[in-house]
Write a structure and sequence with these properties.
Sc_DH/Rdtase_CS, oxidoreductase activity, Rossmann fold, SDR_fam, 3-oxoacyl-ACP reductase, KR_dom, 7-stranded parallel beta sheet, 253 residues
């Protein structure tokens, strides 16, 4: 990691979708800072591999619970369990998402609901689950992972873009509501991050070249780039930053 934040040592961090991709980079980054990390993911096998890697590199693991975040009651139970395990929570990162492609013509009401149930609804109810505890501590940082697709109006997944657009408004509303209790809420907006999923499904040479042509910085965005920004938003280094959208997309927007 490029950044080191002393106040994140022993910080208590909860991350959704932490088993792979950006989420796994987030888990690893906070563990590297010395934080206590708990995460949920629907893929238990990926989580087990991540924890094995953490054990080998740092001689400790993150607290993992399997969870389908569409089940809000289950998600809030996992948050409650994690808070008990870590004796509180300082940072919530709503990261889990699904960017499956779909067209306007074929989208069904059920698919629309499922997209929002993954990409938006858990953000609010995870924040609800930690708000009272963070308020009792007089501090907290909630980071909602969005997407620059909402700022660019990208085509090919309108329900996903709608959910990611709503995250911007949700973060601003929660920042106003929770700010008096010392809780900061920000959106972290990645560009096209070259995760294994993206490479396998959509990152063709032509598509990557087109994206780089639109970026000011002519390099692909890696998971670590997003993790570095999340560390900053979690740390007291950004203590007066709330209700904002931090865009990490190489200058594409």
């Amino acid at each position: 990691m490029f950044g080191q934040y002393n106040d994140l040592a022993n910080a208590r961090v909860f991350i959704t979708g932490g088993g792979s991709g950006i989420g796994a980079a987030l888990v690893r980054a906070f563990v590297a800072q010395g934080a206590q990390v708990a995460f949920v993911d629907i893929q238990a096998d990926a989580a087990a591999r991540l924890n094995a890697d953490l054990q080998a590199e740092f001689s400790r693991q993150a607290y993992f619970q399997p969870c389908d975040i569409r089940d809000i009651a289950a998600l809030q139970r996992c948050i409650e369990n994690a808070c008990a395990e870590m004796d509180g929570v300082d940072v919530l990162i709503n990261n889990a998402a699904s960017d499956n492609r779909h067209s306007l013509a074929s989208l069904t009401p059920e698919q629309w609901d499922d997209s929002l149930n993954i990409n938006l609804r858990p953000h609010l109810f995870a924040a609800q689950a930690v708000a009272a505890l963070m308020a009792s501590q007089g501090r907290g940082s909630i980071i909602n992972i969005g997407s620059n697709s909402a700022l660019l109006g990208l085509t090919g997944y309108p329900a996903y873009v709608a959910a990611k657009s709503a995250i911007l408004g949700l973060s601003k509303a929660l920042a106003r509501e929770l700010g008096p209790n010392g809780i900061r809420v920000n959106s972290l907006i990645p560009g096209w991050v070259m995760t294994e999923r993206q490479k396998q499904l959509w990152a063709t040479p032509d598509a990557v070249a087109q994206c780089l042509d639109q970026q000011a910085l002519k390099a692909c965005i890696e998971e670590q780039d997003i993790a570095e920004a999340a560390l900053f938003l979690a740390s007291q280094a950004s203590r007066m930053l709330t209700g904002q959208a931090l865009v990490v997309d190489g200058g594409r927007v």
